[in-house]
Amino acid sequence: MEKKEINKRIKEYQSLFIKDADSPPARFGKSVYIRKAHHERISQIVHIIGSSEITLYDYIDNILTQHLENYNEEITHSFNNRKIY
Fold first, then answer.
1. Region for 52 from its dihedrals, namely left if φ exceeds 0, alpha if ψ lies in -120 to 50, beta otherwise
2. From the CB of residue 44, how many other CB atoms can be counted at a distance below 10 Å?
3. Which of 33, 48, 52, 66 is deepest in the core (most CB within 10 A)?
4. E-assigned strand segments in the chain
5. Which tens digit of pLDDT belongs to each residue from 24-83?
């Protein structure tokens, strides 16, 4: 991959995920458990890339928001076609 393309992808990544979450504070959310290895990696990303200016909550919330937006149609389709007895 070209350096120009890599830089473009890095900027896109940071603009999507390395920012404050546009949501209520974490204290109004719910607790979930994640794999220890994921927690360690996410902590490193937030600390180093995010310069400790965002929280784990911000980063994870941004990832989930983007995922749900990107796959909204597939999720809706799968949900609607699920047979519940």
1. left
2. 11
3. 66
4. none
5. 887 888 899 999 999 999 999 999 999 989 999 999 999 999 999 999 999 999 989 887
